[in-house]
Amino acid sequence: MNSPETTDAAITPAAFEPLTPGARPPGRERHPLRWVLLACAALFALLMAFLLTARSVLISVEAQSPASLEIGGPYLPFGERILIRPGQYALTVTAEGYYPLETTLPVSSEDSQELLLKLEPLPGRLVFTSTPPGARVVVDGEELGLTPLENIELAAGPHQLQVLAERHLPWERPLEVTGREQRQTVDATLQPGWAEIGLASEPAGATITVGGEAVATTPAVVEVMRGEQQLGLELAGFAPWSRTLDVAAGEPQDLGTIALEPASGILSLRSEPTGANVTLDGDYQGQTPLVLELAPDRAQRINISRPGYRRYNEQLTLAAGERAERDIRLEAQLGELRLSVSPQEAQVAVNGRVVGRGDQVLSLPAFEHSIEVSLEGYAPVRRRVTPRSGIEQRLAIALQTQKEAKLASLSPELTTAVGQTLKLFIPAESPLAEFTMGASRRESGRRANEVLRPVALKRMFYLQTTEVTNAQFRQFQPNHNSGQLEGNSLNREHQPVAAVSWQQAAQFCNWLSRKEGLEPFYTQREGIVTGFNPAATGYRLPTEAEWAWAARADGETLLKFPWGDTFPPTKPVENYADNTSAYVTGRILSGYTDGYVVSAPVASFAANTKGLHDLGGNVAEWVNDVYTIPAANGARETDPLGAQQGDNYVVRGASWSLSKLSELRLSYRDYGQAARDDVGFRIARYAE
């Protein structure tokens, strides 16, 4: 039982004093593994984070030996796969016998991925031997050396191998190199490339040749390379023997005993002059100089002849293998040639050698000679003459000037590849080589563009006698259609082509030039005519001056109309808009009937005095010149061609659709560039 003092007293805490100075006051104890557990928890958290974000990647390596991987980043092996987070990682792959592979490992966000890698094997090490040794080793066309060859490095994979040795058949094989520094041995046994050929001769001791090279003497067995070979025997006093053999490697042949023939005698023949014909016992042998083979110990007759010389004969006997020479001077048989030359100062040459000037009396051997007569400013003349012994011959040669010769060489008429006829014209020989185009202001019907224009024509030219027909033009443009009017066709074969532009007409000329191998007159760019070459002699359109001269010049007179100077015509002379054409043209030449509503077949009407048809009618005609109105009182022009290019071109002549006095005059001028149903053309070309 407690005392009152004890019961009433307050209970108070007492201060703690440790028994050991510096000791901690009592409190809660810390477990000693606490930090280890915390580290493990953190590591586990990191591992779980890695596993949750990592992707499964299978890296397959194609190699014959185990491969090692070095990845530049954290990963976890997982069977044949690895776990690795998305990203780009450096990757190194190594395997014994292969080149190391350094690459990049790309890891995407896909859950499962695969990367296939192929390692390049190291070269293989090869040994080459052969029977026989010393053969050339060629791999893929590159020579490596002579066998035996040791430790030759070759890339792994397929190769083409050749082993070659003289006089042996080539040894060829495909070669598969294992690589990976593995050693391989190739042993090639080459087969002989020859065959043994046995032969003897009668008499013995003849030299055996193969391909012209001596190899043995008979009797013998010789090694002859495969293929076609020339085998021969040579022995003094005997004719050479030869045979072509088809030799198969490894297949021997026995030719037996060859009986040699006694050698021919050899005769070398020369003659003065050379080129004489030689016969031996009547058989032709050739011309001198010549080497003949004569049968030994037998008389044979030799005959040597040349036109203009006396024949040479000799009977000759040569021993076997004997050599002889003959130099024969042939005796000439002369004939007399009396040559008359004009002009007398002309030079005379015989066979290229000058013999004098003017008339000559020549004694020449009785064979063919070349006679040339020449003089400056004249065209040379060459003749071939064969004099006859005892007979005097006469030859007269008159030289022509270069101009006369040139004219004589020109054909007065030519035919084109499509059947057109062109006539040659030489205006310089005409009284109107210089004339005035156009018409006087006082002339009835004269138009403002017919300004008087003086011209001169000096160049010779060819001009088509008719207008170009549909049939001729369709050889250039097969689908061309000239059209029809009110059921009246313009498209029949022999009607003049119509509905052609100036460009089409000029392009036809160039096409025809190329067809005949002539230099085209017109220049073209991307199919368009852009100008012309005045020096070209290809086909072209006539110039306006040529057309006017061809249509109007009649002796010393310039015609006003094709029929003369009075109007209207009293009989059908050209195809115009006549009485039958009213429903087509709406206008006619009253009282005139030519028999055709639209165009007529070409040459249906008489030609003019120059032999040209339809210049004044049928269809009007494109000419070469760009359309201009000449200046009044201009200077005389020579062979004018007009400008190189322009917007419009001159049209000359009337047509089946025209009837007025103004239009039927030969000085009438029109222009355009597009196709019309009453405009065609004819062609021309310079003669030089």
TrEMBL record:
<keyword id="KW-0472">Membrane</keyword>
<feature type="domain" description="PEGA">
    <location>
        <begin position="195"/>
        <end position="253"/>
    </location>
</feature>
<dbReference type="Pfam" id="PF03781">
    <property type="entry name" value="FGE-sulfatase"/>
</dbReference>
<dbReference type="InterPro" id="IPR005532">
    <property type="entry name" value="SUMF_dom"/>
</dbReference>
<feature type="domain" description="PEGA">
    <location>
        <begin position="335"/>
        <end position="401"/>
    </location>
</feature>
<feature type="domain" description="Sulfatase-modifying factor enzyme-like">
    <location>
        <begin position="434"/>
        <end position="685"/>
    </location>
</feature>
<feature type="domain" description="PEGA">
    <location>
        <begin position="125"/>
        <end position="192"/>
    </location>
</feature>
<keyword id="KW-0812">Transmembrane</keyword>
<dbReference type="InterPro" id="IPR051043">
    <property type="entry name" value="Sulfatase_Mod_Factor_Kinase"/>
</dbReference>
<dbReference type="InterPro" id="IPR042095">
    <property type="entry name" value="SUMF_sf"/>
</dbReference>
<dbReference type="GO" id="GO:0120147">
    <property type="term" value="F:formylglycine-generating oxidase activity"/>
</dbReference>
<protein>
    <submittedName>
        <fullName>PEGA domain-containing protein</fullName>
    </submittedName>
</protein>
<feature type="domain" description="PEGA">
    <location>
        <begin position="265"/>
        <end position="331"/>
    </location>
</feature>
<feature type="region of interest" description="Disordered">
    <location>
        <begin position="1"/>
        <end position="24"/>
    </location>
</feature>
<dbReference type="Pfam" id="PF08308">
    <property type="entry name" value="PEGA"/>
</dbReference>
<dbReference type="InterPro" id="IPR016187">
    <property type="entry name" value="CTDL_fold"/>
</dbReference>
<keyword id="KW-1133">Transmembrane helix</keyword>
<dbReference type="InterPro" id="IPR013229">
    <property type="entry name" value="PEGA"/>
</dbReference>
<feature type="transmembrane region" description="Helical">
    <location>
        <begin position="35"/>
        <end position="58"/>
    </location>
</feature>
